Amino acid sequence: MHGPASPGWLLVALCAATGAYCLLRMRSSDETQRRAAGDEALMGFGMAVMAVPGSAFTPLAWVWPAYAVVFGGAALRALWVARSGTHHLHHLVGAAAMVYMAAVMTASPTAGHAHGGSGVPLLTGGLLLYFAAYVLVSGVRLLPVAGAAGSTAAASAPAWGDRPELARACRLSMGIGMLAMLLTI
Length: 185
What we know:
This protein is 66% helix and 0% strand. It is mainly α. It is globular, with a radius of gyration of 17 Å.
């Protein structure tokens, strides 16, 4: 992406750590959680690679079109499985955003948007609004609910990879990462 090196490396670390935790979540006994974790791991690692600052290396010409193909496939898969749950619609938007960013990088690998005018292109603005709303809603969902904390027993605690609050935090961090990446294109 086209941003300063230090925040870029922090974004790489955040996305890679999120992708690694999602790989751990793939060991869950719940099949739907495993599938969602796999999609999120792909997104986390894909975002980590895409966020590597341009000053670190110059990708080959085929890298961004390959990204578009990989995340285009992920978008088609998300569209297919969205029949069973609305959470997959978020995966669809995320994968489509990755395709869009890869297309922008293909068109203009060194200078951000290839559009001649000033301002933010409509699609970028729409994606920024979506991910800003997603981050806000995800953040609110992480807030503790009064009275629910004392009712859990140690014997019924979920496994480390099955904890819903960690999965929500993972999604929140990827939403923040997506916002940061969209701001730099």
